[in-house]
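HUMAN: Can I see a protein plus its fold?

ASSISTANT:
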Amino acid sequence: MIAIKARVDAWLGHFTMYRLILWVLAVLAAYSMVLNALGWLSFGLPEMVVHLVLCLGLTYASNRLMAMLFKVQPHSESSLITGLLLYFLFWPTELIPSVQVLDLAGVAVACVLASASKYVLAFRGRHIFNPAAAGAFIAGLTGLNIATWWAATPAMLWLLVPGVLLVLYRTLKVLMACTFFAVALSVVCAVLLRGGMSFGPALWQPIAQQPLLFFVGFMLTEPLTLPPRRWQQMVLAAVVALFFAVPYNVAGVANSPELALLIGNFLAFLVGQRGGIMLTFKGSRPLTPFTTEFRFEPRRPVRFLPGQFMELNLPHSRSDGKGRRRVFSITSSPDSPEMTFGVGTAEPVSAAKRALLALEPGECVSGTAVGGDFVLPPDAGKPVLLIAAGIGIAPFLSQLASGSSARRDIVVLYLAPSAAELAGRDVLEASGARVIARLSDGSPPPSFMHDAGRSRIDGDSLRELIPDVAERDVYVSGSPANVDTLRSAARHAGAGRIHVDAFAGY
């Protein structure tokens, strides 16, 4: 089972989150046209093609125009995703016997407003609302057209379900999605039962004919409009589910999926990193032959907890298909005036990393999000074991550099190919933590580290190295394959609470 999961993670690691969502939505769009050709949808193929071209063309063109006006580089993947979302939100306009001009105008307004919302409805460079939801909601207020969320049809479920599951697994939002789904489904089912519907149809109707799956898979879990912590995301999911499912009408505005999402976006904005993050590049230094530390000075203080990550926007002219927004663990402490990131730079290097390596001091990059739950327990008296494989040491460096680490009972188990590839030695030594190194080539580690030899790390060897492992909170960081193996070893060693942070696809 671990081997299968490792293969799936390795395959998904070739796709960035944005690229995966774009491909899944594109496949669903193609599938919808196949369904239409088979007679399972009744829009008409010309209408669907025109609708798709209109949504993609207008969002792409208007996004580039807005980017030019605001003097920023456009994010084309994001605009295409927005266009595909609007394709599924609005009913394809009838072309025969006559073109419904007002309907087309409503869709066009939604597309342009969705692009504009990224720049106008923003605070310090960070957009507040989901662009597709904002465009659809405002277009509805004009009376020109209204979002129908037609992706919620039974025939679409055959590919919609696996597509949503794939996206949620890749973005690590399964628990958040389950929270939303449980609350929304319960409320909608209760309303239908109260209206006289029997239990079976009341349970099936919201799944097959309401956009629960599409909403949670592609809209609610958009990372740029989420709060940073998992518990905050789950609370948000429950709140949005209530606004989604409970019928209401206030001043002529009725409940709708897009309104529920906009309310959730605003609440997330209040608790998250408000405003974009502008970082000035100060310099870099090699941590190991295959790892580089990049130093930045933020223009404004950045709120984060040791162990969290930041998503950097790294524009580059020659794309390798992996996108320009990449997630990196922060290696500096929150009280440091500079922010540092430890990045694996072994060949082959992605285009985004090449852009990072090509930075000159004084150049600026933007951070688009801060988040993650790979943080130490709030109780400083709780002993912890930090297990790092290779570049997995990155989030631990931030935790060990933090002043609170001196008050903790910390053991670090660091797995690396050789002594030369042990990153962050200065931080590890200064932290006062007990550090155990397991080096594959058998080379001796630095004198302040305990040598674990070359033996394989399993449950028995882990108990031998750390006899009280069962009493510690265990944190595991590294590649997906290493994380799965080490998590299994910790579990067999008796560890009860295991937290993981995997690095893939960047």
About this structure: The CA atoms of residues 130 and 222 lie 8 Å apart. The radius of gyration is 25 Å. The longest strand covers residues 277-288.
